[in-house]
Every structure is written in C-alpha cells, then in structure tokens.
Amino acid sequence: MIMSNRKLNVFLPILFAIVLALGMYLGHKMPGANTGAQTLLFSRGARAPLQEVMDLLKFKYVDTLQVADLQQEAIEGLLSHLDPHSVYIPPSHLQEVNEDLEGRFQGIGVEFNIIADTVNVISVVAGGPSETAGVQSGDKIIKVNDTLVAGNGISAEKIRKLLRGPKNSKVQVTMLRKQKMLPIQIIRGDIPLYSIDASYMATPQIGYIKISKFAGTTYQEFMDAIRKLEKAGMTKLVVDLRQNPGGYLDAATRIADELLDDNKLILYTKGQSYPRTDYKCEKPGLFEKGELAILTDEGSASASEILAGAVQDWDRGTIIGRRTFGKGLVQEQFDLSNGGALRLTIARYYIPSGRSIQKSYANGREAYDEDILNRFNHGEFVSKDSIHPLDTVPYKTAGGRIVYGGGGITPDIFIPFDTSRFSNILTGMYSRNTFSNFAYQYYNSHREDFSRYKDPTQFTNQFQVSNELYNSYKSFAAKDSIRGIENIKPRDEAEIKSRIKALLARQIWSYAGFYQSLNKDDEMMRKAIEVLNNNTPLK
C-alpha cells in the first residue's frame, strides 16, 4: 500500500504536464481561437440540439438577443405539441397562480373596481387590515404612497402591485371620502381567497353551497358550510359547480368522501410513468345519506367533473344542468431554476364506472379551445338531443344506468341555456360593466335605505326594484352610451331588475348575498329544489 503511493507521487507531475499540453493544443485548434471571439468549450455529445442552438444564439448571434424571451417561446413551442393543459408559468405570473390555489395572499384586503379612471373600494374584508385601519366601502383611492392612481389611466394590475406586499409591511393610502382627503396607513396581512362563494338555506330543508374552485382551503370551507347548514336544519343539499374550472385533486376527493359512504372508489389515475393509483373513501362523511343535487355547466371542469362524476356513477345524487367541459387529465407542477414552473400532465383520471371524460385534442389546441363555441353553435346549449356521446363504449352506473365518457359529464336532467338573456341591449350592459357601476354608485348614495335588511335572506324575500330605482338605472345606462333604452322588452326588463337586485346584495354581503338573490329566479336552482322536494328517482 505504501509503495503504491510513492510511485503515484513520482508520476503525478508528469501526468499534469501532459494534460496541460494537450489542453493548450486543443484550445488552439478550437473554432474562433484566433479570431478574438469568445470560445465556448462544451461536449457536443452531452447536450441536446435544442441546448446547442440556445448556446450558439447566446454567444455567436450578430445582434443582442433577449435570451429569456427566446427560452420561454421555445418552451411554449414544445408544449404546444402536447396536451392543452401542459403549460409553462413564467416567473412573473407564478406567485399570482399559486396564491389563487393556496387560498390566500398578502395585501390590504379590499375589493375594488375602476370607474372613469378612479379606483373605488367596493367592499372591505371583514377583520382584515383595511377594516382595522378604517377603510370603508365607497372610499376612492387617490394615492398609494407617493404614486397618484387617480385620473391617469390606472390599471387593475398596477393597483394590485401597489397595494399588495409582505405581511406586516406598511402602505400609506390617500382616500377620498365625502369630498375629504384622508391619509390612512395600513399594515398588510394575510388575506383569504375564499373558494366557497355562498352557503345558505334555500328552503327550510334544502341547503345550497356554491364552490367556485378547488383550492387549498376548499375542503375546510366546505366542512364549515356543511356544519352551519345542518345546524340550520338541512336534510337535502345542492352543490353548485357551475363555471368551476377545477383545482386541487385532493380537495375534490376529500369533499367526495363526505358525500359517499363505505370505501367507494372516487377515481383512479394512471400514466406512462405513473402506475394506477386508486382514490377511495376513507372515513365516515358528514353528508352520506341526505338527498343531493349537483349543478353543472360547460364551465365545470377537472376537479368539478371528478366530484360530479363520482356522484353520478354511484347514483348518489342528481346531476342537473348542461354537459361539463371534458377535462380528464392530471397535472403536477414542477418548479424551474428561473423562478417559473412547468405544469405537466402526468396521468389521466378515470371515474368509478371506468370512463375517461377527457375530450379529444387530436386536432390541435385551437380546435380544442373552440369546442365550447362549437357546442353553442350546434345547438347543444338549448337542446339535449344535440348532445352526441363521443365514446362509443357505454358505461354503467352502480344502479345500471347507461352513461358515456369522452367529452365531459352529461347531466341527468338537462336545463337549456337561456339565450334571450343576451339580447343586444343586455350584452352592451354586461360588456360595459354598467350593472356593477350603477349598483356601486346607487348603494353608496342610498346606504340608509338598506339598513333595514339584517341578512341576505330578508333582502332576497322583501326587496323589490321599484320603478324609481329602475328609471334611475335606465338614465344611468343611457349616459353610459347604452343604445336602445327606450325599446327594452319585458324579458330584458326582468333580467335587468334581477341583476340590479343581486348586485346591490353583493355590495352589502359580497358573493353570499349575490348568489342568494340571483338564485331566486334561476332555472337550474328551481329544478334542483323541485327534484329534491319530490324525491325524483334517477332513471
């Protein structure tokens, strides 16, 4: 052992000399070695062509390039050949995306809109930093620290960047309230982003829960809502998943576990690199026996379809509405070294009957994105007979009913889309935000008129849009360049009054008030109440 070490010590200097000489010779022979150009030494065999091209562009191209932009375009180009739900999230957007699914962000806790280049506080988060500092609904934000934000083409994105910041940091906001300037210092904090917009008793026995997305806090919000409704006497439940784009798989399976009994299969996933994984009920649920209805539409996707599909396949409840989006893929998010992330599809999911509800993306992303519009143009939104199952193999529910995959969840009871709601005059009012702007201004100038209503239920049952209020809205709309005010049809008038009432409720009780008021005249909600009251059996 000692002898071997002595021989190595003798030959080491000679070995180093040979390596040095060889390196100098190779360096002299490298392209660009005698031109004064920067030489890039790398092993061509160890790098993929894409990386080689990026390196050559970076070091050899005639003009200066924005390499980060090129890399993003290259990544998006690669992903464009995969499924439509594998996406790259650049560093500038990652925080916002994560906050939305985590269910919280750090800021001052106000909801605002911009009317005529003025930032108006619509509502203040109860118990949040702004309420603590004395901010009120109706205040107008004039300055944030030293930045003037009124009358200079301010955007919602810029306002959010100015108002949000690390927890416990301070921001100085100048408010205009009743023609007086008020400097208010606000200490930022954690602000919840609720995923359950409303929960209330629709009838003495029927509860209602509106889930807008499946985020990190959704399950706990759902449990709180269920307990509150059961204390109020709920024995039957409506879960509203309309326009819910999905979110976390875990949130959907945990809620399904509260609605299904025993150890029933909720779904299973599998992919090329991921073996089959079963998701089953694991514990007794809070609402396993009461009658159940799920509301869906073409905007219900992903995790929404998991919940609706499990309920349908086990004949646990009635699906009411229109065919869902058709997303049966599972994504996993991978953080990247540049601060962005790759959200990559790693598996397909299959609901209990064994069906995949993923619609085809074989014709490319553009055709995939136009699917909903094509459904509308083909009449599917107004006629159940226009729905054509895309899967040629029928599946059966636990009770033996025939269902199909390959394109979303088809409801048990079809409710057509009311196309009359979008006449030219109503479309103009929606697109110009006329309803919201009017409700904000009217409420803040008539606050005392609304003080008599103690909760959304009383408001929904008692408040009526008077002729005086309706005429005020028409005058406001005319000034907002809405054409055809003098020729409003009775059906449009009913929609206008319903929307004004709901938005006034939102001013007072946020989305809880909005949905309770709007659902009073909602056809899907009416059908759900009818089905649950009549104990209508599934067929």
The end-to-end distance, rounded to whole angstroms, is 85 Å
Shape: globular
- Radius of gyration from the alpha-carbon trace, in angstroms: 30 Å
| Tally of structural domains | 5
Give the name of the CATH architecture of the largest domain: Alpha-Beta Complex
* Percent of sequence in beta strands: 15-25%
Task: State the major sheet.
Answer: 6 strands, antiparallel
**Overall average residue pLDDT:** 88
CATH class of the largest domain: Alpha Beta
What is CATH's topology name of the largest domain? 2-enoyl-CoA Hydratase, Chain A, domain 1
Instruction: Provide the structure class.
Output: alpha+beta
Oligomer: single chain
Helical fraction? 25-40%
Q: In DSSP terms, counting alpha (H) and pi (I) runs of 4 or more, how many helices?
A: 18
**Count the strands?**
21
- Note poorly predicted spans: 1-10, 24-44
The fourth-level CATH homologous superfamily of the largest domain is 2-enoyl-CoA Hydratase, Chain A, domain 1
Structure explained in plain terms:
Pfam families: PDZ_2 (PF13180), Peptidase_S41 (PF03572). It comes from Chitinophaga tropicalis. Keywords: Hydrolase, Protease, Serine protease. Residues 94-164 form the PDZ domain. GO terms for molecular function: endopeptidase activity; serine-type peptidase activity. This protein is α+β, with helices and mostly antiparallel strands. Helices cover 39% and strands 21% of the residues. The protein has helices spanning 2-29, 49-60, 67-79, 91-102, 129-133, 156-163, 218-231, 249-259, 303-313, 365-369, 371-377, 424-431, 434-445, 447-450, 456-462, 467-479, 490-518, 523-534, and strands spanning 87-89, 104-107, 110-115, 118-124, 140-144, 147-148, 170-177, 180-187, 189-192, 196-201, 206-211, 236-240, 265-271, 274-280, 291-296, 318-321, 329-335, 341-350, 395-396, 402-403, 413-414. The chain has 5 domains: 1-41, no CATH class; 45-80; 104-192, Pdz3 Domain; 196-417, 2-enoyl-CoA Hydratase, Chain A, domain 1 (Alpha-Beta Complex), CATH 3.90.226; 420-526, no CATH class. The model is unreliable at 1-10 and 24-44 (pLDDT under 50). It has 18 helices and 21 strands. Helix 7 (218-231) packs parallel to helix 8 (249-259) and helix 15 (456-462) runs antiparallel to helix 17.
